[in-house]
Write a structure and sequence with these properties.
Number of strands: 8
Radius of gyration: 17 Å
Strand content: 25-35%
Order of helices and strands: HEEEEEHHEEEH
Number of helices: 4
Structural class: alpha+beta
Distance between the termini: 33 Å
Shape: globular
Helix content: 25-40%
Largest sheet: 4 strands, mixed
């Protein structure tokens, strides 16, 4: 159903929405601008979000993304490295983006293709991993958005 909902938009670059994996679990989609302190960078989308609507944004994650084939062809022709990590963990004061946000931001600024987020297509996001020191095995904890909201209210 998620795939059909994304395809039905007819958009070349559209993603479903989910929350980031760390508290306070903001939406994993952003617009570029200035925060309340005037610092330039990614600005969180306002909540509550418009359930069921499709909206233009600057940066969306690739975890639940539809990229139309003609856009992929354009990307391959133009960029040698379409998914490029520009964050520098040694200098967090310098704004940079993860590979998925950088990809969607470049689609907008360099190719003129506006990324969109579909607020009716939601997904879960792994929010943590537990590693067994004895075996090296691990497992992930997954939460739905409503469970995360409940954790926020009680935590």
């Amino acid at each position: 159903q998620a795939f059909n909902m994304l395809v039905s938009t007819g958009l070349p670059l559209v993603a479903g929405i989910y929350r980031k994996r760390y508290p306070p679990f903001p939406l994993a989609a952003y617009n570029m601008g200035r925060d309340a302190e005037g610092k330039a960078g990614a600005v969180a989308l306002p909540e509550p979000f418009p359930w069921g609507q499709v909206a233009p944004v600057d940066c969306v994650p690739t975890g639940l993304m539809l990229i139309r084939r003609d856009l992929l062809a354009m990307v391959v022709q133009r960029w040698a490295k379409p998914f490029d990590w520009t964050m520098n963990p040694l200098h967090p004061e310098n704004f940079g983006t993860s590979e998925d946000y950088n990809f969607t931001l470049k689609c907008k600024t360099e190719l003129g293709v506006q990324p969109h987020v579909h607020f009716g297509v939601t997904a879960q996001h792994e929010v943590g991993a537990r590693i067994d020191a004895q075996t090296g095995g691990f497992d992930f904890a997954f939460f739905r958005s409503d469970q995360i909201a409940a954790v926020q209210k009680t935590g």
